[in-house]
Amino acid sequence: MLKVGVLGAGHLGKIHLRLLNQSEKYELVGFYDPNSENADKVSNEFGYKKFDTISELIAAVDVVDIVTPTLSHHDCAKEAIMAGRHVFVEKPISNTVEEAEEIMRLAKEHNVKGQVGHVERFNPAFIATKNMIENPMFIETHRLAEFNPRGTDVPVVLDLMIHDIDVILSVVKSPVKNINASGVSVISDTPDIANARIEFENGCVANLTSSRISMKNMRKSRFFQKDAYISVDFLDKICEVVKMKDAPEVPGDFDMILQNAEGVKKQIYFDNPDVQANNAILDELETFADAINNDTTPVVTLEDGAEALRIAYRIIEASKNR
């Protein structure tokens, strides 16, 4: 079993601690949190070992799970990697692209593995459909959330939209050609609602909308490709797949048939896959353990996290230039 320690014992950090503690692939050694009052509370309530310094924690483990505020991701990852430890870093990978690039460089130099916590890659509805998403040419995403003061220290693009950016980049195998975007600050000092249009060199277009001031929560993505429409509801963990094929010469009584202006007939049918319930956070942590143990590539690499961050900042810059 891999010895693991957690940096940060806030809301998400406590979830990671609980899941790592129950995982059969890790031995939870303990955690570090700079807030001594919070650290004492977590240690007393759950029985996890509390470390007094980051360095002491890093020295005691094989894997460092970084669940601290984004501003400290780089420094924490750098110290862990230079000590030869594998790192799991919550999204976004870092505060700046330059920091992300240094994390990648150091990981290669010290021959350690890294994974970024883009948890939607492990959403069961996406897992059920991702192999059906083939060369999508139009993608539309809506990620809307009710207002929560937690996370408003960064633009909504880095807080929410980056989830969808990562998912889109994982299915569109083409460089980004152009980005147009707009954003509005309503409550916070940074944009609370944003829209982006990403054009890829292969002709695919992705339209993304994110808001943290909505009346209801929504996390939906729609993928349109030749002869297929795929809808993924990341919130309710359900999916819908609608496909078209050449209509039979003699349709059945209940076959759904469409005919275009040229007289070509297509049959519409539903091919909804079975969605297997899972714990996405536990899965992302345990697949990282598998990558370390089997010396394979993590599901969400440091490069993936850096590219998502790079596109996010291009969206932020594009919205400023409007």
From TrEMBL:
Residues annotated as domain GFO/IDH/MocA-like oxidoreductase: 156-216
Pfam families given for it? GFO_IDH_MocA, GFO_IDH_MocA_C3
GO molecular-function terms, A-Z: nucleotide binding
Organism domain of life: Bacteria
Q: Which Gene3D superfamilies match?
A: Dihydrodipicolinate Reductase, domain 2, NAD(P)-binding Rossmann-like Domain
* The Gfo/Idh/MocA-like oxidoreductase N-terminal domain, residue ranges: 2-118
- Which InterPro entries does the entry link to? Gfo/Idh/MocA-like_OxRdtase_N (IPR000683), Gfo/Idh/MocA_Oxidoreductases (IPR051450), GFO_IDH_MocA-like_dom (IPR055170), NAD(P)-bd_dom_sf (IPR036291)
Q: What is this protein called?
A: Oxidoreductase
